[in-house]
Write a structure and sequence with these properties.
Blueprint lengths: L3 E6 L5 E7 L7 E7 L4 E6 L3 E6 L4 E7 L8 E2 L5 E5 L10 E6 L5 E6 L4 E6 L5 E6 L2 E6 L5 E5 L10 E3 L5 E5 L5 E6 L4 E7 L12 E3 L5 E6 L4 E6 L6 E7 L8 E3 L5 E4 L3 E4 L5 E4 L16 E4 L2 E5 L9
Antiparallel strand pairs: 1-2, 3-4, 4-5, 5-6, 7-8, 8-9, 9-10, 11-12, 12-13, 13-14, 15-16, 16-17, 17-18, 19-20, 20-21, 21-22, 23-24, 24-25, 25-26, 27-28
Length: 317
């Protein structure tokens, strides 16, 4: 948010530690993905740029501008390849994703997939790449970059944020015209269920879906209604468990701490996942509530990165 990375201490009430200024963020941050092997984070901007920032040295390693891209990117666990969607705003025949060398930012391949390539996720085991384009969810082999299957008619009006369980069997995809989600069988390649939030259909898009690390709950974001709806993800279709109220609207997002204790979203509100209570408010240097939709949890030990989370709340059971 703003012109850099805000660092908050999870062990001290989510208090602000400091800000690392990265001026290029003023272009508009589209994605923010991290990697343990490289101890770096990779940021993409609206102005077709991708950059690499070393978390241990706190220096920018490289920045590159491309002819296409860059939306919410993702990186393989080995830290070698970044997959960069060309953007929800781009509908050309060559829309899809860029394959970028994470070491230096060099473009190695450009793969045509479909219009409005938006959110990408590399599975935690590094086997699969998922990419949303309009109402299609595509599954690729993350090693060979080969297309495995495409799942059509997902997400109502477009592929908005989604999440995937650890075993790569099920995806939960936000709807574009209502508050709710599609449950997608990733192996069979079809939509199993469409689930709507609320007692009556809520006619605006959903932007944010996350599985708790233990995969027992699915939380989805209703940014216009200022709510996070919660579902029992141990059942198919998932069943409603209530909601939490948010202090503000915004872009929409939801993710969780690696230990499953905290829920973060597109507002300054921090919730305790178990009790569903508000336990902290994120604030900037001036004490003003601050929010965003790009979170990375990073653990340091003696100045070295020892654990890195994911901006998408993926199942880890």
């Amino acid at each position: 948010t703003g012109d850099g990375i805000l660092i908050f201490d999870l062990d001290d009430g989510h208090k602000l530690v400091r800000r690392i200024s990265i001026p290029i963020f003023k272009e508009g941050l589209r994605g923010f993905t991290g990697n343990l092997r490289t101890h770096c984070v990779y940021y993409s901007t609206t102005n077709r740029r991708l950059g690499c920032f070393d978390l241990e040295k706190e220096t920018t390693v490289w920045e590159k501008t491309y002819e296409a891209g860059c939306d919410r990117s993702s990186i393989t666990p080995d830290g070698k390849k970044i997959f960069v969607p060309t953007g929800w705003w781009y509908s050309g025949d060559d829309s899809g994703f860029l394959v970028v060398n994470a070491e230096n930012g060099d473009l190695t391949r450009r793969i045509h997939v479909g219009p409005q390539a938006h959110n990408s996720i590399v599975s935690l085991d590094g086997r699969f790449l998922y990419l949303g384009t309009q109402t299609t969810l595509s599954v690729f082999d993350a090693t060979s970059d080969k297309l495995i299957r495409q799942i059509k008619d997902v997400g109502e009006k477009g592929i908005f944020p989604y999440t995937v369980d650890r075993r790569n069997r099920t995806a939960y995809v936000c709807l574009g015209g209502h508050v709710g989600f599609d449950v997608v069988d990733l192996e069979a390649g079809n939509v199993l269920h469409r689930v709507l939030a609320g007692k009556e259909p809520i006619p605006h898009r959903t932007h944010g879906a996350g599985l708790t690390p233990d995969e027992t709950e699915l939380w989805i974001s209703d940014q216009e209604g200022r709510k996070l709806f919660i579902f029992d993800a141990t059942r198919l279709p998932p069943e409603p468990r209530g909601h939490v109220d948010l202090s503000d609207g915004g872009h929409g997002w939801v993710c969780f701490s690696l230990d499953g204790r905290y829920a973060w979203c597109h507002t300054p509100d921090v919730f305790d996942v178990k009790s569903k209570r508000l336990v902290a408010t994120l604030r900037d240097e001036k004490g003003k509530p601050v929010s965003g939709s790009k979170f990375i949890e990073v653990h340091f030990r003696e100045g070295k990165v020892v654990e890195v989370g994911n901006e998408f709340a993926l199942g880890r059971k």
